Amino acid sequence: MKKYPKIGIRPTIDGRQGGVRESLEEKTMNLAKAVAELITANLKNGDGSPVECVIADSTIGRVAESAACAEKFEREGVGSTITVTSCWCYGAETMDMNPQYPKAVWGFNGTERPGAVYLAAVLAGHAQKGLPAFGIYGRDVQDLDDNSIPADVAEKLLRFARAAQAVATMRGKSYLSMGSVSMGIAGSIVNPDFFQEYLGIRCESVDLTEIIRRMTEGIYDKEEFAKAMAWTEKYCKKNEGKDFNLPAKTKTREQKDEDWEFIVKMTIIMRDLMQGNPKLREMGFKEEALGHNAIAAGFQGQRQWTDFYPNGDYSEALLNTSFDWNGIREAYVVATENDACNGVAMLFGHLLTNRAQIFSDVRTYWSPEAVKRVTGKELTGMAANGIIHLINSGATTLDGTGQQTNAQGEPVMKPHWEISEAEMEKCLEATTWYPANCDYFRGGGFSSNFLSKGGMPVTMSRLNLVKGLGPVLQIAEGWTVEIDPEVHKLLDERTDRTWPTTWFVPRLCDKPAFEDVYSVMNNWGANHGAISYGHIGQDLITLASMLRIPVCMHNVDEKKIFRPAAWNAFGMDKEGADYRACTTYGPIYK
Ligand SMILES: C[C@H](O)[C@@H](O)[C@@H](O)C(=O)CO
Ligand SMILES: [Mn+2]
């Protein structure tokens, strides 16, 4: 059972004894309990455990009670707070002053006592003190004896809590670079200051010789390796695809079998490097047993490693997948080509959804005209306005096959605790493991290949670093689409047919970057995108504002944007206000 941060609930109250406070004690504490129940019933951590809440020991009426609550929250491992009230309270005395906690305030909309007035007053305090907080105010007046949480309030509470838990879960963890810069990809020039100041994440790095050392000296769990090999024989090796390499570059059967053993060992070692392994301590490898506390990692692969050793596609794909030989489990976050910027976008998506992530090159925009020219066929349905080819060797989760289904039989990518053994086997069955293209991967290995089923709502995002500005986030909600199999074959075989493909169609709107499918690709800030199941643009925007990362491109309805109340002070144009606020506040850990 992993250790996760908790959400602190702060019931605040009018401190006046002799009637007022007494009349509100029960109501205020009941509201706090209702919020805690809402969060614990609806939100889970990555391991499937419910997000825990901690409620202050008493209502908070004066500053001494604020301080006592702050001390309790520190002891209990709180990482963010929600203040709730149904009455007037003394803002500067009762507000949460912790500079690192994401914070929200729910002012009960009941007119007998001025909860909304406190909400506005304390949000002014938060703005004045440079501690921006999210304001939650229900649209309809509630009766004083109504302790229920209205739907609009619940939606904002949960949106805040999802993002706040993501922020708190990242704090204190590591990003592990396995290797270094891959083929001059800027995203793999890892910027430790960004990780430290914006995410509270420490950057760790290991040279790739460490994988060879551990293989050579047997620093891995031999029993697990045997179990993994048997599983790989049963589910992966049997789906080995045609070898498209030139004869001179084709490995023998014996060499390929050695490669399978190599990449399975490599996968175990990469996982151990990320999170450690107590079995290694039993084997006498105390230091290696510790791991790097990595919540995300990147594997350089190309080129030096892949010019000589089998590639990392199997390792990256399986680590990013919600299952392996040990069964169904939380997906890891591993960026191929050590593109740490894309790794961050994958991490955001994973923490907000508890689902595995797709890592892709944003490879090709295909206009309807170009498709007609090369295939003689029309793009139809949701693909009719053009499609974007998402494809990358390696780090695309096998959950991306779309072989998991919801109650309606529609393709989905599920949190791991909802995936069945049968669905795991379907994802594996839908994946072909082609011998690696030895023109690119001289050391051989295998690449996962599948075609994502269409009809899944997805969100593609990307974190970019801009000198002089800092980090910015891009977001494109859309869908996976299926196209005529013959069209797919022709288009896919023009590029890298041994790699996994997802055909993506963004939701278009009247914003310039979304006026057509071409514009989405033409405005994308790097070669990669992280693709998460679901339309999570609103959550990403809320999360980005907590981290002070401006959003430079998105196709989310402006009315659905939920950011700290202080953002309103930076102007009515939401995008400009976002930039001005992020610049003013700066990173939360600086
Ligand atoms: C062709 C290169 O080897 C691939 O790695 C390339 O398609 C990329 O993924 C670059 O991001
Ligand atoms: Mn790539």
From TrEMBL:
It catalyses: L-fucose = L-fuculose. Keywords: Carbohydrate metabolism, Cytoplasm, Fucose metabolism, Isomerase, Manganese, Metal-binding. The active site is at E337 (proton acceptor), D361 (proton acceptor). GO terms for cellular component: cytoplasm. InterPro entries: Fuc/Ara_isomerase_C (IPR004216), Fuc_iso_dom3_sf (IPR038393), Fuc_isomerase_C (IPR015888), Fucose_iso_dom1_sf (IPR038391), Fucose_iso_N1 (IPR012888), Fucose_isomerase (IPR005763), Fucose_isomerase_dom2_sf (IPR038392), Fucose_isomerase_N/cen_sf (IPR009015). Residues 173-354 form the L-fucose isomerase N-terminal-2 domain. It is an enzyme of class 5 (isomerase). Pfam families: Fucose_iso_C, Fucose_iso_N1, Fucose_iso_N2. Residues 4-172 form the L-fucose isomerase N-terminal-1 domain. Its cofactor is Mn(2+). GO terms for molecular function: arabinose isomerase activity; L-fucose isomerase activity; manganese ion binding. One of its GO terms (biological process) is D-arabinose catabolic process. It is found in: Cytoplasm. Residues 390-554 form the L-fucose isomerase C-terminal domain. The keyword Manganese applies. Its EC number is 5.3.1.25. NCBIfam families: fucI, PRK10991.1. PANTHER family: L-FUCOSE ISOMERASE. Converts the aldose L-fucose into the corresponding ketose L-fuculose. This is L-fucose isomerase. It comes from Bacteroides stercorirosoris. The gene is fucI.
